[in-house]
Write a structure and sequence with these properties.
Elements (H helix, E strand, L loop, with lengths): L1 H17 L5 E5 L19 H9 L3 E8 L5 E8 L4 H14 L9
Antiparallel strand pairs: 1-3, 2-3
Length: 107
């Protein structure tokens, strides 16, 4: 486990250095729309956008911005640097206020 912790720490340090001049990082939540219930593990390669921040530990806000043709939600992920939660929350609220409401998916 010692090497894993070292790698994660180096990853976090590199990410912070790379994005030092930016307040937030905006990405899709996933490479595709939401997955059908129970299929996420089989299609985990589409979830790499989320995995970055699972490792980084940075605060993230997810905002629904649309629906796929299959009726599944499409989200926008806003990540802020450590201890900068207010930045991603404020931007997320702004985006929610200017985007049309996205209906809840039918489960």
């Amino acid at each position: 486990f010692k090497n894993i912790f070292r790698e994660v720490t180096l990853f976090r340090s590199d990410l912070l250095k790379t994005l030092q001049h930016f307040d937030v990082l905006i990405t899709p939540v996933a490479a595709t729309s939401a997955k059908d219930h129970g299929t996420t593990y089989q299609e985990c390669r589409d979830m790499t956008h989320c995995m970055v921040h699972s490792l980084s530990g940075w605060p993230v806000t997810v905002v629904p911005v649309g629906m796929s043709t299959d009726g599944l939600p499409i989200g926008l992920q806003i990540a802020a640097k450590p201890w900068e939660d207010h930045n991603c929350l404020a931007l997320g609220a702004l985006i929610e206020n200017i985007m049309p409401r996205v209906p809840h998916p039918i489960l």
